Amino acid sequence: MAAAATCGTGAGSTGSMVAAGGKNNVTSFQRRGPRASGSDSSYSRLVSIAGTRPSVRNGQLLVSTGLPALDQLLGGGLAVGTVLLIEEDKYNIYSSLLFKYFLAEGIINGHTLLVASAKEDPADILQELPAPLLDDNVKKDFDEDACNHKTAESNIKMKIAWRYQLLPKMEAGPVSSSRFGHYYDASKKMPQELIEASKWHGFFSPEKSSSTLNIEPCSLTHGYIKLLQFIQNIIYEEGFDGSNPQKKQKNILRIGIQNLGSPLWGDDICCTENGNSHSLTKFLYVLRGLLRTSLSACMITMPTHLIQNKAIISRVTNLSDTVVGLESFIGSERETNPLYKDYHGLIHIRQIPRLNNLIYDVSDVKDLAFKLKKKLFTIERLHLPPDLSDTVSRSSKQDLAEPSKLLGPGCGVMAGGKKHLDF
Amino acid sequence: MFPELNNLLNTTPDRAEQGKLTLLCDANTDGSFLVHHFLSFYLKANCKVCFVALIQSFSHYNIVGQKLGVSLTVARECGQLVFLEGLKSSVDVFFRAQAEPHPLQFLREANAENLQPLYEFVREALKPVDDGEAAWRCPVLLVDDLSVLLSLGMGAVAVLDFIHYCRATVCWERKGNIVALVHDSGDTEDEENNILLNGLSHQSHLILRAEGLPTGFCRDVHGQLRILWRTPSQPTTQRDRSLTYQYKIQDRSVSFFAKGMSPAVL
Fold it and tell me: How does it assemble (chain A) (predicted)?
């Protein structure tokens, strides 16, 4: 079948594409293709807004999601004016972590934040953001990590699964002085002075629901109407939609909405099958309309596993731009499955938008797993397809093994640089 | 427009048919490339186009249209294209009460019965001009996409009524064409969507169905396109003609090939 035949070459081109979309300074892996050198010059142009960069493919303005590995999978980052929908994992552990990474990235870049939640006070959410990994600490800690792995597993060389050694890593380690996308330490909290220096607006649904409604009753639930009005007010007053031309410095508004669709918002799609089936979809439509006409990007986490009416999930997917699903192994039988023992869950990229283009940057890698190490959230490829290319011979693989330097363990094994691969 | 697709459909912009309803359908994949094709096709065919774009912004279609050889800004300025930008207008409608009925009026209402304001908008946009200026060939209504109307609170019957009214005006009265995109939700039980899809399939003259490959993702074959020619008004004594091709979408065009004959495999 065509799928299997082309996947063998997929690894090679993914490598060069990943390198081309990566940082313009020292990266942790060597480039394979010649394409990367040409695109470096375009990044040296200054972008006018902090924390954004133009997309390689269509010049679309991108912001980082806070997780460089996820940025790569989404084609460089989250496009300004679009919605990223995260389908929550069962106990909302990793999706809330991604939510915090998104907000922390906004604070580091100086973007304005709008945090909306029905469960926690936004001020409390901001207190719990992870601390950014700065370059000098990071190298030290990362080398420590690498050393530990080296001593433990230096005897294990890739004998059978040697092809995994050749894969370029997803952004596993921090890169020195990266301006787009930062790494965060989940065990430490963001310093208080950074939070206080940032500009943020909070929307806590129980507090706002008491005020009067000055919009005609349409089928949206009360909480959604208030949230839309709040967002629209902020966008209008702070000039994110270009309505205040005297603003000197353009900035991005990062909107984070947590647990959208849960009963705490007043929506009953998670409780019953015949609930108000249009409230959430109408909300998403008007929200997307607001985003398209302003300099903002939005991340929404939604407990789709609780939604009773499956038709709503497909409608919500069609109404969002980028959809990423998280599936954690906690509590499922996969937790004890030896196949998944190194990972904490699977990550599914369900939809990537085609913006201003007929084609889009789709990653060849479809089975991805994530794990949360002490400090870093890494996303790795789970399986390699069989290598059906014509030149499956040991001598050709040795040549390829030399230039690709891998950082960090892959699939639990330390990979060397110029080791000969003997069977 | 994609020249290869024109060959498959056996049309050129000069000989575009009239009075036809074309249904675009996508299942497990993104069928928006078909919308871009028909938009640029009818603009090149010198037809007056009313585009109800509910799902993406104007600049998106404009940038892709430029790759395909048409400029939407020029077409809009000279009156060939009437563009209803759903996302932008929805914000206006939702937050500010409008003086006169707006085509997306149903966003403000709790139980909108029908899509009459939208129909009035279409009828007004495709009204034939009487003052003898550059006459366009035939009016065309393009909708991207109808499934969004279901998500916004309209029932399947209301959307079918809307298409029926538009067909009566655009296809029958003014000998124009309608092209509409509907998502096929597949195995998720979206009943309203199935009603809409089945109802439209019975009324259309041409159905273009873009499907994802049943074996999953492939880099060289992005999907499969099924073309079905129908004659809804006549009794089906002869079988409807159907063709299936696989396609790969590139930056500025789409290449079609017979099943299993992808250049990557040969």
Answer: Component of the elongator complex which consists of ELP1, ELP2, ELP3, ELP4, ELP5 and ELP6.
H or E segment and range at residue A137: helix A135-153
Of B60, B91, B254, the CB nearest to A290: B91
Buried b (16+ CB within 10 A) or exposed e, A6-30: bbbebbbebbbbbbbbbbbeebbbe
Residue B198 to residue B156: CA distance in whole angstroms: 11
pTM of the model: 0.81
For position A392, what pLDDT does the model report?
57
| b/e A129-163 (16+ beta carbons within 10 angstroms → b) | bbbbbeeeebeebbeebeeeeeeeeeeebbeeebb
The set of residues, in sequence order, having a beta carbon less than 8 Å from that of A9 and lying 6+ positions away, is A389
pLDDT classification of A251: cutoffs 50, 70, 90: confident
CB contact under 8 A, B91 and A289: yes
Tokens encoding A316: 């919500």
Indicate whether A191 pLDDT > 70.
yes
Residue given tokens 């005020």 in the structure block: A211
Q: What is the pLDDT of residue B65?
A: 94
B265 with A290: Cβ contact below 8 A: no
Decide if the complex's ipTM is over 0.85.
yes
Separation between Cα atoms, residue A354 and residue B67, nearest integer Å: 14
Do the chains contact at A358 and B250, CB–CB below 8 Å?
yes
What confidence score (pLDDT) does residue A154 get? Answer: 40
Please tell me which residue of chain A has the smallest CA distance to B262: A2
**CA–CA separation, B266 vs B250, rounded Å?**
19
- The strand pairing partners of A322, in sequence order, are A84
